[in-house]
Amino acid sequence: MDDVINQYKGLIPDPLLDKLREEISKRKVNSKDLGKILDELKRTYELSKIHPGESIGVVTAESFGEPSTQMTLNVFHFAGVAEMSVSLGLPRLIEIFDAREKIKTPMMNVYLNSPYNKDPLRVRKIAGIIKEVKLKDIATNFYINIQKFQVEVLLNKKKMKLFSLDEKDVLQVVSHVLKGTNARLGVDKIILNFPAQEGSQLVELYKIKEKAKEITVSGIKGVKQVLPVKSGNEFMILTAGSNLKDLFKVDEVDAVRTVSNDIHEIKKVLGIEAARQAIINEATKVLQDQGIDVDIRHIMFIADVITMSSAIKGITRSGVTGEKESVLARASFETPIKHLVNASLIGEEDKLSSVIENVILNQPVPLGTGLPDLVIKMKGNVQ
Question: Is 273's pLDDT higher than 90?
């Protein structure tokens, strides 16, 4: 069987041949039938190829534009609790292709190493370690004592016990963050003083009180909510908020399988290739959730366009479109006057090598039948 398949090496891509081997191993196929299957596979593969001169950019744009207009209006999915809502549908697709730095619902799928992923109690404990806990989450109240000119933070012992925190740990974190402020323990409270200064001490006390509320005393910064769930035969954690860099420092976390939906963060932590794959995965997920089938090659193509400069640049006037070589192509998208004036100031030249600039000038585009040029071979000397 392998001898017959190997004859098609170079004619059919290796991944397709490997998939075929996997499929025929489950069935009884003789050499004659295998030959017919390989011929049909080769024919189908040849038909699926893009023809020279085909306008793949337009086809890709249409492949996303047409089905995205038919997406459902239900664009939020609640994974157990309201805090875990996830953007879906057209808003999420726009987020991905515009390469927005701040997305509406950042989240992570946190997978754990064995044996932690089998025990629900351990999973809950790890979820508690991951969740960001601020001082306001474990405090009953924040008071300004005007008489003594100090801020008093009343601690909630029950909540502290829930997050495995003691008063000394909290005091150490507060002292480190509020440098220049004298922090000490009282009876079930933390007292914050600051050196006497000229001017309004009351305003300074209020600033310290507000700053103290937002101090992260434990957990990973940015992870606002955690939700342990069962996935297949193991437990994992869904998080509202994303911080891969700090999450990977937790020993129990499986850094290989853990993913975030924040493309820019993936690029910072794992590199541009990982960001490209994340764009493909996220776009595919959105389309599949809506029951829409778009060829993977269109999704891969748009991911390549967004990441080809080793940075993530959206399909916007300041991103991919703003960096086009053609002046007329840039001007046709948005703010035409700005592009034309800037080009005239530096004497920029347009090679007219793409579609839109030739359409503007009412001449054949270099695609399809407009791609080949007529070349005449002349015999003898031509005057």
Answer: yes
Residue ranges making up the domain that contains 289: 57-105+261-313
Alpha-carbon span 161 to 100, nearest angstrom = 39
β partners of residue 257: none
Asked if residue 66 is part of any domain, the answer here is: yes
Q: How long a stretch of residues is the chain?
A: 383
Position with higher pLDDT, 131 vs 194:
131
CA distance 382 to 52: 33
Contact 223, 265 (CB under 8 A): no
CB pairs under 8 A, 24+ apart, for 27-32? 29/1, 31/1, 31/4
Residue 198, pLDDT above cutoff 50: no
Q: What is the pTM of this model?
A: 0.77
Asked whether residue 127 is assigned to any structural domain, the reply reads no
Beta carbons of 298 and 64 less than 8 angstroms apart: yes
Q: 332-361: buried (b, 16+ CB within 10 Å) or exposed (e) per residue?
A: bbeeeeebeeebeeeeeebeeebbbbbeee
Q: Which residues contact 330 (CB under 8 A, 6 or more apart)?
A: 321, 322, 324, 339
Query: Among 64-78, 106-120, 337-351, whose mean pLDDT is lowest?
Result: 64-78
Are both 37 and 82 inside the same structural domain? no
> 56 exposed, middle or buried (CB, 10 Å; 0-12, 13-18, 19+)?
middle
Identify the CA nearest to 149 among candidates 181, 176, 179. 181
Whether 241 and 262 have beta carbons less than 8 Å apart is answered as no
Give me the chain's average pLDDT, please: 83
